[in-house]
Amino acid sequence: MIPAVIVDAETQAFLMLGYMNKESYELTKSTGETWFWSRERHELWHKGETSGNIQRVISMTLDCDLDTLLIHVRPAGPACHTNAYSCFFNTITGEGLTDANQAKIKNKWTDGYFPKE
Fold first, then answer.
1. Percent of the chain having pLDDT more than 90?
2. Are strands 35-38 and 2-8 parallel, antiparallel or unpaired?
3. How far out from the chain centre does Cα 50 lie?
4. Do residues 21 and 38 make contact, with C-beta atoms less than 8 angstroms apart?
């Protein structure tokens, strides 16, 4: 399993983080569209299969340790399942953020979320 950071090739915005196993990596290379392994559902998923928001791969690069992928894509729509352009829209606020994670994450889709420990 390898983390895959997905970036819009045009805007350079970070769109999402997904995980790939060997099969999803090979499918991404062979189809030119992103495929991931769902750690929650334990199955392959093709980005945009149901929404139509596919991601056409422009380039793939491994980091220096060969354990993280950076994938530049041309997105056909929003990256996030909430219909947001990017999955990174939750602003963290709070004083003295500590290991106890006292930060609240708030946005227009939620009225507060505390990550599971």
1. 66
2. unpaired
3. 16
4. no
